[in-house]
## 1
Amino acid sequence: MRCEIVAIGTELLLGIIVDSNSAWIGEQLALAGIDSHFQVKVGDNFGRIEATIRHALERSDAVICCGGLGPTQDDITRDVIARVMGSELRRDEAIAERIRTYFQSRGRAMSQNNLRQAEIPAGAHAIPQMPGTAAGLVCPVGDKVIYAVPGVPAEMREMFLGTILPDLGRRSGQSAVIRARVLRTWGMAESGLAEVLGSRVEELDRLGNPTLAFQASGIEGIKVRIVAKCDDEAAAVRILDAEEKLIRGLLGDVVFGVDEQTMETVVLDLLRRQGLTLAVAETVTGGLMSARLSAIDWAMETFRGATVGPDAAVGSSEQRALAAATRVRQQLGTGVGLAAAAARPDEGLPPGAVFLAADISGTARAEKFMLTPDRRRMREFSVISLLNLLRRMLSA
Amino acid sequence: MRCEIVAIGTELLLGIIVDSNSAWIGEQLALAGIDSHFQVKVGDNFGRIEATIRHALERSDAVICCGGLGPTQDDITRDVIARVMGSELRRDEAIAERIRTYFQSRGRAMSQNNLRQAEIPAGAHAIPQMPGTAAGLVCPVGDKVIYAVPGVPAEMREMFLGTILPDLGRRSGQSAVIRARVLRTWGMAESGLAEVLGSRVEELDRLGNPTLAFQASGIEGIKVRIVAKCDDEAAAVRILDAEEKLIRGLLGDVVFGVDEQTMETVVLDLLRRQGLTLAVAETVTGGLMSARLSAIDWAMETFRGATVGPDAAVGSSEQRALAAATRVRQQLGTGVGLAAAAARPDEGLPPGAVFLAADISGTARAEKFMLTPDRRRMREFSVISLLNLLRRMLSA
């Protein structure tokens, strides 16, 4: 089963919008075991869209067209697909009614243009998921198929997961259930992970199921993705559970979370469960830690705040980090205080040396980290390393 | 002149990396008046890369291949181009020497693999810009041309701007100089801008040079892009200068900056020139303002710091904003204090009402803004609106 993606819109070619839809769809297809060998961007031009879709149908079994389903004259995906199908556009009254209802329920006036969105090629059928005013389409062409979805990411995703992915599964005759789980790690290089997990990876290469893959993601750490393929959901989940347990056993507390968990959500959860609140002295991190924590805990109930400013204290970086963690904890009256202090040239430490400190209920501890001397990266790595230090202390 | 972009790499199809290179190249081509009708992503597969390049050469005059120039077995762009050119790969000793020097100067050992990067198709020549170990290539094919650049954005950009863009200009016989300037605006909707600039846009539609275009960019505001096409650089700059003056006359202080300037750089420059320092009370903005300012002023010389925490004060939102701006200014001993306070339900104000306040040298002023009640967007819009308020006060 080969599925090609065609992203439609002149603004994509001009670089006004980066085409992240194709990347997302590509990831979903790969996860489902469907090949996607080509992904093409083309502008709002009838002849070029038509040539691109025809070419895609020659070399692939399915084509997903993304974009060009809006109400304006530029939006010609429906027209081009009708031409490729050798059919005509017809008003679909059910879609027209849904569009009218969409506007009425929001108290907005509908322009006549919007009814263009209810014209679909004869022989096509509408995708039931329709969160906006654009109808997605399933358009059979011989034993192949063209799908059309809007370029608005949320609408595209709902239609893809609700209709296209299951339809592709049926067409490929693939009855297997594919499920994935991502283990989030921090503190070990990819080569280190590969070494620790090496014999397990080899074993799985022989067994074939589940599979393991690593994905480095900068300050978000390295993701270990487990993919299981089974006859049913329950069996897939059992395999994922078993593999997660095995990998956690090998990696220990390098694994900080699963799937959508981030370092911030994990640390805030740990604090909450232990009835602790948090304050941060942001000399090295310049507000970045606060911005990340308050994006989740916006009412600042667990993360109680921070002081941001240059590091004016005297003493070694270790002393300054410890003192700042304790001071901010006392100042804001929290259970935990966090701080970082970068080594100064006269300390005889290599550039990039940073002490990270945590004071938990009056017991302070500092650790030396070698980070990059580049300021931007030092800020970012200090934030994650500080959160990870606290995570390990709270989990110990 | 038509130029097609081929992005090469299986990780692009799998969605592990989003292809932002093609968007960037597309923008540069558009700015230079070169058409780019198709942009294709293809994996690390010899036959499919070859088919994609051959197809691109049929319908375009130039093809830019991006990626697949690394030292590993996966990196086959050089091999495929040699096949398309009907030639063989040959070791280029000058490139080999540059690669050896690259490793030596960094005190790193070179693996033999890296010399694969010195094998280029006979008939191709290397792009002089070579910031890494991958050599970019210019490969003539009849009267058409294939360019190859690495997928690392910084390397790609240097080669594109240094060699490919001028070469495309020569090939298209286009002697015109195209220069662009972006005016950054904040505080007026796109419809408002279109109204104020309407008659000028119509006039330019008749004249043809320069052209104006609007580009909405979320909390970065709306960009007004002026593009001038002239016989020489000096004439283009004269046109841009005159048009900028005219638009600034129409829009007034809605224009906050030009080209690479951001709201932060503009405000920090204004403060510096007036010998003022800044402190911020981040109750609504939760550290986001600090993160943005310290990303530029990382030593915190002008932006002296912030307090982050929930808003525990009593009083109306206007009173709380004013008091917080004055308090943080006094606390940190700065010339300027900034603060925001969101209206509470008992104030009788609509949801999303926020007072933004600035205290400059003891004179405090607050303004009411209607922002979205959504917390994340309220944070972001408060940051930009506060900076813009201060900009207007310092410019008055």
## 2
Amino acid sequence: MSAYQQLESIFKKTHHLNHLHAIVSWDEAVMMPPGGGDARAEALGTLSSISHETITQPQTADWLEQANQDNSLNNWQKANLKWMAKKYKNATCIPAELVRQITQASITCEQAWRQMKADNNWKDFAPLLEKTLNLVKESAAIRADSFKQSPYDILIDDFSSEINQAIIDPIFTELKATLPAITQQAQERQKQISIIKPTGKFPIDKQRELSKALMQAIGFDFNRGRLDVSHHPFCGGVSEDVRITTRYNENEFISSAMAICHETGHARYEQDLPTEWLHQPVGQIHSMALHESQSLLIEMQACRSREFMDFLAPLAQQFFGEQEAINPDNLYHLYTHVKPDFIRVDADELTYPLHVILRYELEKQLIEGNLLVKELPAAWNELMQKYLGINPKDNYALGVMQDVHWPSGAFGYFPAYTLGAIIAAQLFAKAKIEYPDIPQQLAQGNFSHLYEWLKNNVHSKASSLSTQELLTQATGNPLSAENYLQHIQKRYID
Amino acid sequence: MSAYQQLESIFKKTHHLNHLHAIVSWDEAVMMPPGGGDARAEALGTLSSISHETITQPQTADWLEQANQDNSLNNWQKANLKWMAKKYKNATCIPAELVRQITQASITCEQAWRQMKADNNWKDFAPLLEKTLNLVKESAAIRADSFKQSPYDILIDDFSSEINQAIIDPIFTELKATLPAITQQAQERQKQISIIKPTGKFPIDKQRELSKALMQAIGFDFNRGRLDVSHHPFCGGVSEDVRITTRYNENEFISSAMAICHETGHARYEQDLPTEWLHQPVGQIHSMALHESQSLLIEMQACRSREFMDFLAPLAQQFFGEQEAINPDNLYHLYTHVKPDFIRVDADELTYPLHVILRYELEKQLIEGNLLVKELPAAWNELMQKYLGINPKDNYALGVMQDVHWPSGAFGYFPAYTLGAIIAAQLFAKAKIEYPDIPQQLAQGNFSHLYEWLKNNVHSKASSLSTQELLTQATGNPLSAENYLQHIQKRYID
């Protein structure tokens, strides 16, 4: 075997371990009874250590060096080698014991968070969060040294590869400068529209059927995936077996229907990845900014469009019967209604980026040591007041304790949501230029041209290109908020 | 760390890997969509290899030798060391590659079996079974050489430690000599009784509620376990998170109610194991004969007793309404009805051992090379005719393809069912001597004295004793069919 092939076999092994990790983590969120938590955390800690040992085995460095001299590699293999080297460097910086501690602390913290959030119990949660944060900081500091980047850039890169504060800051500055005013204008404009809320009970089994019908329309492959219920909607599992979840409230179906569209956007990206590269780093998705772009493209650009409501309204009527509120125009008003509120996952398209920017600014300070965990609730409330004009006070479940990210150790993830929204607008604008009938197709629940374009320009590339290269090849431009701001202007102001 | 402590840390690691294996295997049977199968098989193959490498790492042999000289070990530690040595010897005999092949072949075979059984497709199934069998034979032959035992004894020992053909043969011979006649007598006797089948629809959500009420009565801890639906009922997961499954048929509730009692018997054994030893081999259950004894004690001895029907009948009425058939006497007749039939898992208490003996005799020949896979259907049908007087002919789903065991590579498991039934009778007889009110308690759905005795005499021992030692300490006698035959006589003939 060549050095490159040796490396492929190492990373195939870690791919199998990632498979187990993904399924067991899905199980933890969807199936596991509370009493199983400690044993699960320990088992996952051991799994992370083994993954780490596998990548950092003594021969890897030599093989990486030899493979770098290998002139026979094609472009995908070269890109794969780049990912391997990056993963190796990331892994060798950090002692296996620290990796194990991070995994275990974050699982324990996340498990405790579920109950403590329900109990609005910041006091007992804070020390667990602090422990997780400190371990994440320790890992980031070690790697910052080795990669010659700032610790927070290292963490952003963990989730959105090759994205950093230098790329994010000007974009977020532009959004902070424009969104509050647009939000106000949109709120003024919507005063002239009367919106009707659908009333009655929307039985959960009917909502599940509607969910499946939407997934079918968007093209989810049920032979390689499932739909279940969890605390927060998410897309998990593995590309060959994608697990999406949602939650239902029998008093309304509006939220769960759109959560399904969002998660199905994630799922199709996974399901469309090129099979022959799935076992290798280059075949996986390393940019959560791109991943979120695929869910937000489906949710925000396609499924919240006025055109899609022509498909959604009659579909919803099939399951819930006819009522005045379930008509295309009214649904569109509901799905584009703007109202600053406390919860990020329930936020509208205009205020969502402000929720993200708040978290971005706070986690940056936490990682840099300029903010302590005990100071976090006050800092949170101050920024909520500043950006959204509201204050959750000591209702932590509506404030600093609302998200799973920090308790699970995912510092650096949040920017991906708003970058994803921006990329989604950029890709969708280009797709519509190449296939002008996309809006008419959406009105019929037909996603075929949209996905033809996405498969060719995004999904089939997996991680063979950087986010900037991919965007440039697909749209002619690197990351830019231009199409996003045009989209916002058109939907909420014109 | 002492050598013994080093070994404990190795086996703690494999315990964590077993945890992942158990959860992911449960997922495969209960949750996984068919398209996820290939990737899952590969990931589990890798996990098995890692487990194998962990146990067989170079230092293990030295540590075992040093720990053997360690005079400070207590009895549990000594027993633990014995299990470690046995696992090490088993693992070092076999190349890691063979372990990986067995795991992968059996997962592939089991996955294919699900569909091929539904299609009655023996032709395409046979080569997959043959591949699995050959790999199992290869592993058994290597270990037989090293342990100086016959290959089939090695496989029996894999599931029911320290049980072998020398123990089984006289017992099975006795059963073959008595059961067919008792079956005939019982069938004669029951002609005089008129049995009424409950009629109507028994909605699945109501059956689920009944199942949970039964689990509650038997003492299942829902904080450390779940109930779900699968193709075949089973008990999986880990001691801290026990997953039992059943299947429902809305035309009758009789089968699912008793399947639940059976699986809850397994589950309580797992949930009652001593917490401080769970991470080590001595803290786990290595005898499926004992495991089956706990499910069959609950199902056959306790829950099919006339006394328990006084609890079950009014409980079932709560969920399904009153009808003539749901009365204690009639339920008892239903639950003790005897009728030779094709399917083992649906068999009555009297013919079940004959199903097991048939499989025991066939798999012994398969492993010894005296029977080929292609000859299996004819041999199966011949023995069915001989022992039960019926012949499934070329309906393989009613014959040789009915069980998951062989496709999943579990040759040597079957004797555990009938040994379990015998141990169950032996333990129950003794428990009733020490707590004579157990039958009256069961009539009220109260399992407290029964479980007090079982916890003290069985569950708290985990694997610190051999099956024969445990039985002798608990009942005064080693394994014997005496109580079992008395029980059969009393229930079906007197």
